[in-house]
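Supplementary Text 2. Reproducibility record for the structural model of the 240-residue chain.

All settings were left at their defaults, and a single model was retained for analysis rather than an ensemble. We include the record here because the model underlies the residue-level annotations in Supplementary Table 4.
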Amino acid sequence: MVRIGNFFFRYRNFLFIFLYLALLIPSPLLFSLTYFGPNYYWLPLILGLAITILGQLIRGVTISLAYIVRGGKDKKVYADGLITKGMFAHCRNPLYVGNILMLFGLAILMNSLFYVVIVIPVFLFIYQAMVLAEENYLQQKFGKSFDSYCKKVSRWGIRLNGLGETIRSMQFNGKRWLIKEYNTQAIWLTGIFSILFFRYPLLAQNRPHFRNALFFIFLLLIVVFYCSVRYRKKKGIWKA
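Retained model, structure tokens:
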């Protein structure tokens, strides 16, 4: 599994592009009128939004409290230090948990049975393999310190006990969240609004021209957000 994880880590950016595009694959409905009655339309909308927003918030809190470098080095697993504070005191992989919830929420919002049953398990397998590869590296580099950390903190579960105190005791750096995540946030928001306007026509009162105009406005706002944060980052106005 470690070798498999190293392979996926090396090509993870391409894999995740494919996983996002897989949302467009035609699929039977996860929630349908046959089984869930007249409320089926709103069930995936509310549930999907709640889960995907929760995932983004978990990533946001994690990065804002104590950022950990996960980008690797030379396309290989790498870490310059063992981060055990912030959200990492409550879960060993909170960023990955956030990613899983973000994608799972989008799958429910898309109301895609195929994505939930087929793609999400593949996604979980890839993440499990990558995490095992990362943990193998961390154990070799940090030894007993990492072993002790693993005994106290779960790989996937988030320990809620003491979470409020952790957040209150640390400085919340919201700018770092924006600087590190503006690419992800722009893609994520574009995906959400695309699904909302084109998968849920009732939100635009079944009026295609009105829907297209609204979608264009929201898309323009996302572009403004992206360019604004990118400008501040490149000019050094905002620093992580």
